[in-house]
């Protein structure tokens, strides 16, 4: 949450800039996701269910154990000891759920921002092809698209700088949640062999997988948008060749082609890794390896 609050001004400015660019290229297009209300409802429900599970686990199933484990000097014989334990456990539960709520909002922010970038790049390639097909192949027109492409690449870089840390934290949180689920499933503690614990494992695993897939697929859309622009330039080259423009226009178009061809439009997780679909296989292999190691360690303990 501290990272989000610290970079809130940068995030607001970047989102405002991409919204303005989106209105410029797609004045009649809906910005972001059309199901934002449903997404917010799902995120609120996810946190509410998680809070309910934790309340049942800590305040009902494990309350006696918590009361015996939490000791405070000079308060063990006090009548306020139970109140202190209650406040301490409640603080832990609410801290965890506030973090979960922050992660959900970060996911919604990243998802919508990446989707807008993809729509912008799709609109850019389509508009360029449409205008060239209409015979609008002039020096002024091509120069405008060079400027627009430079603006798009800047906006992608700004979004990556503003939300890259959030994406990185989301990935570390979801992967840690998957590790936690594997650990709970393989643990020998009887506390984890109850209905509440089973529901917790299923729900956290489900939300972690959904978060991971939504973030990965939306981030991969940015890369796909960049590749689609490159493909659009191949089609545009054929159109320009048919129009046989003057030398000045041809050189300007060649400059546009070189700029797009040499670009690498992607979003990252704090500049440590590129968000692409192949990242799913890497994480899946990591979680499976962790599960196998945990299983082998438990098997060695029982021998």
UniProtKB/TrEMBL annotation:
The chain crosses the membrane at residues 40-63, 83-111, 162-187, 199-223, 279-297. GO terms for molecular function: signaling receptor activity. The keyword Acetylation does not apply. Keywords: Membrane, Receptor, Transmembrane, Transmembrane helix. It is a multi-pass membrane protein. Coiled coil: none annotated. GO terms for biological process: detection of stimulus; sensory perception of chemical stimulus. GO terms for cellular component: membrane. It is found in: Membrane. PANTHER family: GUSTATORY RECEPTOR, GUSTATORY RECEPTOR 5A FOR TREHALOSE-RELATED. This is Gustatory receptor. It comes from Caerostris darwini.
């Amino acid at each position: 949450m501290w990272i989000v609050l610290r970079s809130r001004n940068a995030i607001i400015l970047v989102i405002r800039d991409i919204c303005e660019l989106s209105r410029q290229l797609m004045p009649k297009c809906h910005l972001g996701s059309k199901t934002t209300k449903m997404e917010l409802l799902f995120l609120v429900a996810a946190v509410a269910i998680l809070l309910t599970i934790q309340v049942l686990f800590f305040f009902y199933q494990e309350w006696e154990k918590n009361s015996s484990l939490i000791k405070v000097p000079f308060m063990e014989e006090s009548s306020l000891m139970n109140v202190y334990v209650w406040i301490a456990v409640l603080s832990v539960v609410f801290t965890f759920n506030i973090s979960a709520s922050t992660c959900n909002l970060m996911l919604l922010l990243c998802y919508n921002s990446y989707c807008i970038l993809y729509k912008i790049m799709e609109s850019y390639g389509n508009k360029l092809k449409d205008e060239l097909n209409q015979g609008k192949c002039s020096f002024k027109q091509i120069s405008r698209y060079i400027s627009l492409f430079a603006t798009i690449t800047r906006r992608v870089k700004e979004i990556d700088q503003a939300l890259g840390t959030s994406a990185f934290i989301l990935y570390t949180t979801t992967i840690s949640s998957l590790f936690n689920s594997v650990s709970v499933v393989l643990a020998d503690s009887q506390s984890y062999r109850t209905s509440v614990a089973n529901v917790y494992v299923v729900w956290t695993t489900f939300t972690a997988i959904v978060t991971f897939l939504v973030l990965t697929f939306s981030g991969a859309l940015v890369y796909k948008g960049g590749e689609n622009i490159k493909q659009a330039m191949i089609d545009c080259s054929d159109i320009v060749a048919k129009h046989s423009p003057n030398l000045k226009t041809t050189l300007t178009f060649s400059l546009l082609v070189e700029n797009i061809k040499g670009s690498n439009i992607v979003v990252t997780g704090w500049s440590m890794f590129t968000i692409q679909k192949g990242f799913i296989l890497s994480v899946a292999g990591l979680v499976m390896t962790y599960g196998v190691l945990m299983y082998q360690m438990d098997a060695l303990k029982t021998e």
